Amino acid sequence: MEKEIFYKLVEVLRDNNLLANSREVSVEEQLAMFLFCLSTNASNRSVQKRFQHSGETISRHINTVLKAIVSLSSKLIQLPSINTPI
């Protein structure tokens, strides 16, 4: 993912009050953990090792980001139009 797109997504999540910095994890890190897990099919243990947070913290933030993304799905995910080339 390009940096600009990542930071735009962070901005959208913040502006819609879907994510906020926690005491120990910024919105950027929450989204990075979520995307890492999603893109690599990483286990909780792998994410713990990479981001140096407890399993409970990882699980909580990944679930929070997932709920935020799902709530934006109608804005972020669009079916192709009939004129879209395959």
Task: For this entry, give a set of tags.
0% strand, 5 helices, 65% helix, mainly alpha, single chain, 86 residues
Q: Gyration radius, to the nearest Å?
A: 14 Å
Characterize the largest beta sheet: strand count, sense, and whether it forms a barrel: none
Shape: globular
Indicate the proportion of strand residues. Answer: under 5%
Return the structural class: mainly alpha
User: What is the tally of beta strands?
Assistant: 0
Q: What is the end-to-end distance?
A: 23 Å
State the helical fraction: 55-70%
Which SSEs are present, and which pair or pack?
Blueprint: H1 3-15, H2 27-40, H3 44-51, H4 55-71, H5 73-76
InterPro entries: DUF8040, HARBI1-like
Protein name: DUF8040 domain-containing protein
Domain DUF8040: 1-71
Please provide a written account of the structure.
It is a single chain. The protein is mainly α and 86 residues long. The chain has one domain (3-76). 65% of the residues lie in helices and 0% in strands. The protein contains five helices and no strands. The protein has helices at residues 3-15, 27-40, 44-51, 55-71, 73-76. Helix 2 (27-40) packs across helix 4 (55-71). The two termini are 23 Å apart. Residues 1-71 form the DUF8040 domain. InterPro entries: DUF8040 (IPR058353), HARBI1-like (IPR045249). This is DUF8040 domain-containing protein.
